[in-house]
Amino acid sequence: MNEDKIVKSFDPAVMRRLVGYLKPYRIQTLIASAALLLLIASELLVPVIIQHAVDNHIMTEIVSIDGLRRDSLILLLLLVGGLAASFVQVYLMSVAGQGIMKNLRVQLLEHTAGQSLAFLGSCPVGSLVTRITNDVETISELFSSVIMTLIKNFLVMIGVIGVLFVLNVRLGTVAVITLPPVIIITLIFRKRARNAYRRVREKISAVNSFLSERVSGMKVVKIFARETEVNRLFGKRNGELLAADFSEMYVFAVFRPLISFMSTFSLAAVIYFGAGLNSRGAVSLGVLIAFLDLVRKFFRPLQQISEQFTVMQSAIAGGERIFDLLDTEDRIPDCGGECRDLDIADGVSLSFEDVKFSYKEGDPVLRGVSFEAAAGETVAIAGYTGSGKSTIANLAARFWDADEGRILISGIESRNLPLQLLRRTVQAVQQDVFLFSGSIRENIALGREFTDQQLLSAAETSMLRPVLDNIDGGLDYQLTEGGTNLSGGQRQLIAFTRVIAHDPPVLILDEATASIDTETEKLIQAGLKNLLENRTAIVIAHRLSTIRDADRILVLSSGKIIESGTHRQLLDADGFYSNLYNLQFGL
Amino acid sequence: MLKEYRRLLPWFRKYLPMYIPGIICLLVTDAGLLYIPRLTKEAIDIVAAGSPDLQLVLRLCLLMTGIALLVTIGRFGWRYFITGSARRIESGLRSALFQHILGLQPDFFEKRKTGDIMARFTNDMRAIRMACGMAVVSLVDGVFMAAFILVILFVNYPALAGWIIIPLPVLAVLVLGMGRMLGRRTKRVQESFASLSSIVQETFSGIRVFKTLSRESYAVDKFSESNDEYIRRSMSLVRIWGLFFPLINFLAGCTTLLLLWFGGLQVIDGVITPGDFAAVLSYLNLLVWPMMGAGFTINWLERGAASLSRVGELLDAESDIKTENTYGQPDEEPRGGLEVRNLEFCWPESTEPVLEGISFSLPRGSTLGIFGRTGSGKSSLVNLIPRLYDPPPETIFIGGRDIRSFDLKKLRGAVGLVPQESFLFSETIKENISFAADGAPDEKIMDAAEFSTIARDLNEFPFGWDTMVGERGHSLSGGQKQRIAVSRAYLTDPEIIIFDDCLSAVDAETESNILNQFIKKRAGRTSIIISNRTASLASADLIIVLEDGRISARGTHSELIEQKGLYRSIYRLQQVEHERR
């Protein structure tokens, strides 16, 4: 995924696909377009009505107050009509834009969340957030305002040129002569403005990310007394931002005044040549006055059009990034027609048969692992960091698929089970707890229906109950992001409760390595014991007690199982395990 | 409201040489804009009079182009001078604010969220820039244009002027009122957007949990709910926004309508001439912007004032710890043994002491172990030594001198603390290690990397030690982060180094390796090690046991395991586990 993808040219395919989202809003778009035409008509008609009133009712021999009243009323109607039409147009297109945005967001999140962990692991979370929030926002803006205003501005400009030529071909040509330089200026400006804008964005994000890092890492800055250095680095980035700001300002400070200069220049040309043509009777005074108004009308949208192009371009870039994500298909394949069902009544066994796996080609992590965990058995896996322990958990839950060999769940190959069923049966839990902001109840249930009774009894089993009794609101206690308002031990107990409530027949537990004070440790051990009871469990062990209590221990080294047996047996064998044990737990 | 702007006075004074030419440019532009319609009218009158003098028309047209050129330069000028100053003020203020908070101490940052501080650097700065730039422009522009045109209108057409300007104050009030409403609703939309983002953030940070329990649908539902709320708020904004510009156009159109009716009647009655009618029409067009601008100006100024008061709050924040020492000799380097005398410490705004009656003395070159439960005050105690929090005077001494008498920068340079939670910057591993040591040679950095054993992980990283850390780079394990943090402190080779349980995520074998090497290399300088493992403290010269902020026992490892108490009971617990095999 390319974060800073830059759309060099207008990509019609992306635009077509974007416009395709308008389909469900056909009626709204149609009404909005009609309202837009009405709006353009009313804007163009206002000067005409004034002209009419002045020529026919005020500045004639026979003045007519009735006529003036009638024209005033028409003008009022036009104004009210314009007001209504523009509100209807903006409102309906916003409805469409917001609706598109709403569905697109949910679709994107659902799609992305369904991708494999391999894919998700390769995307920085921040960039996914940007896709789903900001990029979608730009697209909504495209629909709700930019497209319609662009169309309106184009129509007005084309309309003006048309009217100019209908009124008088020669004077029309004079008025249009300034057009080529205006187009050239606009094109140059567009490019410069885009570059300047991009540079400003880059510098802003450099300043902001520097700031937010230093603020959240302020303690480190203080500890090492690096204030002067940090301030210097900040000053450098801040200075670069100012320079980028200025170069953006120059672009606008030149373009805007230049366009209005061209407008006045064009006006002067029309007056001079108009006067000449008038003296030869080729142009009437009324037409000349109309031209002055029309030239002004022509230049007004030009001021906006180039900026709207910029918005459109960033919407297209955003669209491209979104479609990139939507078109990514990197899911774990769910079994096709031959899904098998699973009987979990008598417990579930799990076995690996000569499983080989590598994350990166040529860098094998598992080199043929075979073992069986019978229903209800607790198997511990021991080994050094990097021996492939966590990979076993990843494969059993099918976060990745094995390259070779088979993984059997109660004798059925796991690929032949529906993914949902498999994940409900085999749950690979990391003890590195993830809690999100919300109540404890929400964090345990994750949207599944549980009665308070069920939740409390799960909390009882996991030893979370005493914690719940001691905090305000119990299950409804609100956690901050990451659950930082609880202690590490309490967080772990919530994670245990989560597993007990969801009750998977097979549990694969990756124990945390962090050292906890001995009393918290005891609390966790008690919860852990209950957690492992009555289910098949594979524990990637970092804790002495877990290893000792396991029915069997598998020792993993360089992707192969090299020893297996009970704690006692393995120690007596005085092999790799006893060595590892002494190093890791020797006091 | 104006009170807040007093803070900007020095800045305005500094940029006065920019603002004055800017305002002159603005007035030139306005005058030119007022003059061009007159020239047009004159030219049209010549044409209307029949058989025009083309030379005269040409001269008028050239004059018009000349004035247009002047207006162009004027417009460039005010943008350059006024919006340029605004950007400079923004940039300068941002810099000043950053410098100020850099001087604040950790207690300040603990009370505030990073996002909250960031908002003052981003949104508030933008609002201040608008107030210093566009608000000034539209204020000057509006006052000048409005005053000029109103004078012309009321002097020349007193009977008409009263009628036709009726919609204009309505317009200004409308822009102001709706602007406030828009501001409020925009804020609500932004809040909702922020919570939407944080849900996406949480979903993908915790995607593994959702997948494990096959509950992706829960994340989607939660997101969907928040998304609906966001759309609802957006629509309530759109309803006002959709009405805003159309209403402005409508009211501007109403002035034309009033002119057509009342002006038309007056032309018919012969009170004004048709030429006057046309002139008033063009003046009205010029009046719309200043009136609209008045509403915007007030909005900009209000938001700017609110932002200034928020920024001011940070600028006025003071730290309890003063960087400048009040006594002692600032040139002196902290050297020598560490002594703590009868230390009592409470958190600011609290009277309950977290540390009480702490006394110990540590000769230069020896190693202190600190042992205790979570929350017993271990981290508080070591945070006082580099004055991250300020100890009471005359309680902590280095080389016999109160640490408060040293220059703060020198003190912190002499005390290397490795905190429990390792914080790394999103930079390369090498930059992180050499964060505190300017221009350290590569061999030294490599040596520091070897020391914490992070060196042997380097070839696992895609770009070795030039691998980026964090969000956009390689994600490191907890143990790897901790070892980098240890290397970072080690590289500065401080007089006193403190490990605050900072190898907890590293396996036991590696930890003991690091600590063994460490004690060997530290010969001659002082070290403090906090740990939950009695075994890690075994080789310390002195161990103090903290319970509820007091020293409950002290001695060497062998002495402590002979005494009844926490240390022995934990030691036994750990020992029993060891022996049960």
UniProtKB/TrEMBL annotation, chain A:
The chain crosses the membrane at residues 27-50, 71-92, 142-165, 171-189, 250-275. Gene3D superfamilies: ABC transporter type 1, transmembrane domain, P-loop containing nucleotide triphosphate hydrolases. InterPro entries: AAA+_ATPase (IPR003593), ABC1_TM_dom (IPR011527), ABC1_TM_sf (IPR036640), ABC_transporter-like_ATP-bd (IPR003439), P-loop_NTPase (IPR027417), Type_1_exporter (IPR039421). Keywords: ATP-binding, Cell membrane, Membrane, Nucleotide-binding, Transmembrane, Transmembrane helix, Transport. Residues 350-583 form the ABC transporter domain. Residues 30-314 form the ABC transmembrane type-1 domain. This is ABC transporter ATP-binding protein.
UniProtKB/TrEMBL annotation, chain B:
The chain crosses the membrane at residues 16-36, 56-78, 127-154, 160-178, 240-262, 282-301. SUPFAM superfamilies: ABC transporter transmembrane region, P-loop containing nucleoside triphosphate hydrolases. Keywords: ATP-binding, Cell membrane, Membrane, Nucleotide-binding, Transmembrane, Transmembrane helix, Transport. The keyword Transport applies. GO terms for cellular component: plasma membrane. GO terms for molecular function: ABC-type oligopeptide transporter activity; ATP binding; ATP hydrolysis activity. Residues 338-573 form the ABC transporter domain. Pfam families: ABC_membrane, ABC_tran. The keyword Cell membrane applies. Residues 22-303 form the ABC transmembrane type-1 domain. It is found in: Cell membrane. PANTHER family: ATP-BINDING CASSETTE SUB-FAMILY B MEMBER 10, MITOCHONDRIAL (PTHR43394:SF1), ATP-DEPENDENT PERMEASE MDL1, MITOCHONDRIAL (PTHR43394). This is ABC transporter ATP-binding protein. It comes from Candidatus Thalassospirochaeta sargassi. The lineage of its organism: Bacteria, Pseudomonadati, Spirochaetota, Spirochaetia, Spirochaetales.
